[in-house]
Amino acid sequence: METNVITKDQVENTWKVSAAKVADLNNKINIALQDDNVTTDQIQEMKNERDKTVVIRDTAQEQLKQFSSTNVSEMHTTDLKDTKPKQGIDKQAIRDMINNFVHNPFSPSQIVNAAGGSDNSSLDGVTTTTMEPTIPEEIIYDPSKEVNSVVDLSTLLTKTPVNTGSGTSPVVKRANYVFPTVEELKQNPNLGKPEFTNVNWKVQTHRGALAISNESIQDSAIDVSQLILDQMGDAKVNTYNAKISSILKAFNAADANTDNLVDAYKYLINVGLDSAYHPVIVASQSMYNALDTLKDKNGQYIFHQDVTGASASTLLGIPVFKINDDLFGNNGEAHAFIGDM
């Protein structure tokens, strides 16, 4: 009977690769158990694959012990011990797996599937699909943050701190009278009384909770607490923008098209708004694109990039802030708000 010689280094390499595969499969199974989209059959298939790889790993580990106890660097494969095989896995297949791994013409980092036969002819046409149970997959545990810049509209507002749940805030109107001409020593005429407009306000509470186990914080490869805080910060901005944009959409709308878009903006700035205002333009992505492609009669773009300003863009000297289309309407619709916030 023909026997092959196998070295300790070759068996040790087999153990390292299979051990890494077992760890990877265990992680996959744990993730799949929490995923409602993964079926029971798919989970069982991963478990079966894991069990086969465990046998490969344990067999190599036992054979490493045999090398250590005999203090040799190589021996015939027929002299190597086998671990007790699990149900459905042929013991001879395990022995052949170790032997084929060492003597096959492929890369030493590959292992023949233990579920396959011991016939060396099965190596013909071996692909990564065949070797998949023994090829480790890299898992990156530090997630990259999605590139999705969002303007926080609350930074454009004038904020007033309050100490109660509701109330009114008086706004005094600008005096619209002038001093009359009065003769010397004549009685002073009465002036107009201050006029106030009351603004009613009410505090609304927005909140939520997310339970985090202490084990997940301790065992995770990243700072879970900081990740959750970042997510809550995103939710805070989303809440602000949703509430603010719903109010901005309620103002009277002025229609315009690409032919008179600049004229419409100029009219609103010069006539529609009080000269004391400090207006800004909040534009949806589609409107922002329309503004960005506007040209004058000489073919020069009139939309400017201001690298020193908070908005990075200006139109007619007015800062322009870009938000997602769905905050002002539907995707593809061009809307904008212009005013003092």
UniProtKB/TrEMBL annotation:
Q: Where is the Phage capsid-like C-terminal domain?
A: 133-340
> SUPFAM superfamilies, from UniProt?
Major capsid protein gp5
Q: Where in the cell is it found?
A: Virion
Q: What is its main location?
A: virion
In which domain of life is the source organism classified?
Bacteria
Record-linked NCBIfam families = major_cap_HK97 (TIGR01554)
Please report the name of this protein according to its UniProt entry.
Answer: Phage major capsid protein
